[in-house]
Amino acid sequence: MTQLPLPLPATRAAATARLAAFLPRAGASYAARRNEDLPGHPYVSGLSPYIRHRLVTEAEVLDATLRAHPQGADKFLAEVWWRTYWKGWLERRPAIWSAYRQGLTEALNRVQTEAGLRAQWEAACKGDTGIDGFDHWARELAATGYLHNHARMWFASIWIFTLRLPWELGADFFLRHLIDGDPASNTLSWRWVGGLHTPGKTYAATPDNIAKNTNGRFRPTGLARDCRPLSMAPHPAPRPVPDGDALHPGAATALLLHEDDLAGDGFPGLPAATPLLFLVTTARRSPLAVNPLVTGFVDAALTDTAARLGQPDAPRFTEGDLDALADHLAAQGIRQLATPYAPIGPTAAALQRLAPLLDARGIRLARLLRDHDAQAWPYATHGFFRFREGVMA
Ligand SMILES: Cc1cc2nc3c(=O)[nH]c(=O)nc-3n(C[C@H](O)[C@H](O)[C@H](O)COP(=O)(O)OP(=O)(O)OC[C@H]3O[C@@H](n4cnc5c(N)ncnc54)[C@H](O)[C@@H]3O)c2cc1C
């Protein structure tokens, strides 16, 4: 069974153990049955909370899968690549994330002033709509911090086309409850369902498909049949792939880790005993309160990372403490702050605000881009299949 225990152990050891336990099922079984949303989620890996925070990296998952299945695990490998595709696609179009945040602010303002919308939104979030399946998934998400991929697709489709709620409110509901909540995968998947990613194409949830893939547990009635795409502005032209920064050898260096990358290794040139500190931005996933399952997971993952790197007392700063963070480094004589490259999202925004504060204290920020991202993101220009051809070539 893939059942995720609660609270989910937020350690690298748990991540690698889950990967090892799943590998025998990453081939034919995954390809045939990954769409089934059954109790315990037996046919998918449940790795997303770990990959999201890089307690295990995408490259490690791809390598281990290929070693276990030199052939026959294409479907699973493709799904892991989807994550990299979405990351690269958004990284090259940051305006899409800004527009989502702006749309969310506007939708939350409407919720304050339109009583009908507020009641509908609250009912959807609480799982009180009376729609079979949908109510279950709303409650499952809040209670466990996880939903099966197919349930995410059905839920988003019903939210947008049957309930006709603003898609940004649904994306925000996911982002503050999913432990794997990710600016790229989440925003772009919601946009894909609503017809804002692939022009003219939406995802329509149907009673038959839901009943078939839930083993008859749910068969909602009254679902929208008219699933025409939401109106969209053209995609912005992709900007070039950002360059990572090089480390300046010999400079007194500290390592800043954050929730987008807690692997803590894989950066050549960084001495093992580099002083460690953390930036915590989890509360900034949403203007609303983030599910304690999410904040608790990140908190425990930082504790695990600090222990793994032999610095259990490594200090933590939030995005509200950036001056204090910069002062802390200056007081220690640090001249260079190395940090894993943070893709578009709250951490990247905080790092952007931190850079001038560091600069004012004579400290350079070195954002270290992993080879996996540097090599794949150049192909995130159009659709997934063109991307896939590029990364597999
Ligand atoms: C509306 C919607 C919102 C989503 N929001 C998120 C999100 O916030 N964070 C997130 O990580 N995924 C998101 N997904 C993608 C996908 O649903 C989850 O990654 C997957 O369900 C995680 O479960 P798993 O680890 O058991 O997946 P598996 O099927 O075992 O896949 C293995 C890994 O591949 C990656 N992956 C699989 N499917 C996808 C996909 N469709 N897109 C991107 N990566 C994928 C994940 O890292 C996953 O852990 C969303 C999908 C939809 C339709």
From TrEMBL:
Domain of life: Bacteria
Cofactor field: FAD
PANTHER family: CRYPTOCHROME, CRYPTOCHROME CIRCADIAN CLOCK 5 ISOFORM X1
Keyword NAD recorded: no
Protein name: DNA photolyase
Species name: Paragemmobacter ruber
Pfam families: FAD_binding_7
Stretches assigned to the Cryptochrome/DNA photolyase FAD-binding domain: 76-203
Keywords: FAD, Flavoprotein
